[in-house]
Design brief:
Elements (H helix, E strand, L loop, with lengths): L1 E5 L3 H12 L3 E5 L3 H8 L10 H10 L3 E4 L2 H4 L5 E4 L14 H12 L5 E6 L7 H12 L5 E6 L9 H6 L3 E5 L3 H10 L6 E5 L1 H32 L3 H9 L20 H14 L5 H24 L4 E5 L14 H11 L3 E5 L4 H8 L4 E2 L3 H5 L4 E4 L4 H4 L3 H7 L4 E4 L6 H6 L3 E3 L4
Helix pairs in contact: 1-3, 5-6, 9-11, 9-12, 11-12, 12-13
């Protein structure tokens, strides 16, 4: 098939590369000439394991094309995917301006053959109906199209694997023809196909992210109890997770969830619920606990620090990505700076992104050992594997004082105690 994807972030670029790898002709439309030129030259812009190789392969094969112009791709495409961002506004409502602008540009460039316009962006219930209205308003009279919702469920850091081996592929539409085309496009995927209506497809995405956020906030809530009572949160959650109805996946206490999905999707679901006169106090509690987890960790540092020079390891919201959107590291750094701390940071991939925010306000290390050298304490905010395997004896020698604040519980407390560290983790 000939496919167009609008947006070249994690969802758009990964989806485009995977579809091209299955032999489809894929156009990816962006709005920045500098980024499009980089992509044309095999630079994926984002950090995602495996993406560079699959990008270069399909560029070389001629199956993947990048452009700024809708007229280059839209008229010949059988399926068009919208993958632009929907960031939160101040009130938590999803900002849909980019989605609607894209819908208008698609409409103006449609040809006479039947085209499926499918939204992969995470959007509130009813958005695809509005997309349909916009396209009807601006499309040529002879154009034939149908709107569908095909939400993504990939995780940054394992996006290619998640796309190829998704638990489910959701296709929502009122058009039988659109559903048939999308099922054909997804035929190479072994994932279970869920065919449903537009509203259900839209809500499935929000419900999925909300329950994941709930598991994390629940875990942090239990960690609060553990810290007050002397219980060990890891032992508690290990035992709870052995119940097959519950499971341990995503029940990880820490310094809070971040990223481009969970924070904004919980807020958007709260906003939508209020518009529908639904009691959203449950979801509001999930969001509040996530904030409390960051605040509690900050207070732990402020109460127990042994000097105001801090080394921070981990800036991205999770390992295997350079994404710092809503990352707890931003909250921690901002507040430590307010309290007069001097900070030196290191992350394997997110350094350039964090520099855009803090610039010269903090120092940037060459590696983990450079970060901890002469610092009064070490703070862990992202569970990168290289931090798990760091030489702790060397770290102890480089630190002025052997104190670690671990926001991800990556070390064994007994091991740290035996090495002579003063160790503060979550719920232990």
């Amino acid at each position: 098939m000939i496919i167009t994807i609008i947006g070249h972030g994690y969802v758009g670029l990964v989806s485009g590369c995977v579809f091209a790898n299955f032999g489809n002709e894929v156009y990816i439309i962006g709005r920045s000439k500098e980024k499009i030129d980089r992509l044309k030259n095999g630079d994926p812009i984002i950090f995602e394991p495996g993406i560079k190789e699959i990008l270069e392969k399909n560029l070389k094969a001629g199956r993947l094309r990048f452009t700024l112009n809708y007229q280059d791709a839209i008229p010949k495409s059988e399926v068009i995917f919208i993958t632009v961002g929907t960031p939160p506004k101040k009130d938590g409502q999803a900002d849909l301006s980019s989605v609607f602008k894209v819908a208008k540009n698609i409409a103006k460039n449609l040809s006479n053959h039947f085209t499926v316009i499918s939204c992969k962006s995470t959007v509130p219930v009813g958005t695809n109906k509005k997309i349909e209205e916009i396209i009807k308003k601006y499309a040529p009279k002879k154009s034939q199209f149908a709107v569908a919702s095909c939400p993504e469920f990939l995780r940054e850091g394992s996006a290619i694997s998640d796309t190829l081996n998704a638990d489910r592929i959701v296709i929502g539409s009122s058009s039988k023809k659109a559903i048939e085309i999308l099922l054909k496009l997804h035929q190479p995927f072994s994932s279970k196909k869920i065919v449903t209506d537009l509203a259900s497809a839209e809500l499935i995405k929000y419900a999925s992210n909300a329950i994941l956020a709930t598991k994390i906030s629940f875990s942090n809530l239990i960690s609060f109890y553990c810290e007050k009572t002397g219980a060990d949160v890891e032992k508690v959650l290990d035992a709870v997770g052995l119940d097959k109805r519950i499971g341990r996946i995503f029940m990880n206490p820490g310094v809070g969830y971040g990223g481009s999905c969970l924070p904004k999707d919980v807020l958007a679901l709260i906003n939508t619920g209020k518009k529908l006169n639904i009691d959203t106090s449950f979801l509001e509690a999930v969001d509040k606990i996530n904030y409390q987890a960051k605040k509690n960790f900050l207070q732990k540092i402020l109460k127990n620090h042994q000097g105001k020079t801090a080394a921070i390891l981990g800036l991205s919201f999770k390992p295997n990505t350079d994404d710092i959107r809503f990352a707890p590291s931003i909250f921690i750094i901002e507040n430590l700076l307010k309290y007069g701390f001097k900070i030196k940071v290191f992350d394997p991939e997110a350094m350039e992104n964090i520099k855009k925010i803090f610039q010269e306000k903090i120092d940037y290390a060459l590696d983990p050992y450079d970060a901890v050298k002469n610092a009064d304490q070490l703070i862990i905010l992202t569970e990168w594997n290289e931090f798990k395997q760091i030489d702790l004896r060397k770290v102890k020698k480089l630190l002025k004082k052997p104190i670690i604040f671990d926001g991800r519980n990556i070390y064994d407390p007994l091991l740290l105690e035996n090495l002579g560290f003063k160790y503060f983790s979550i719920g232990r």
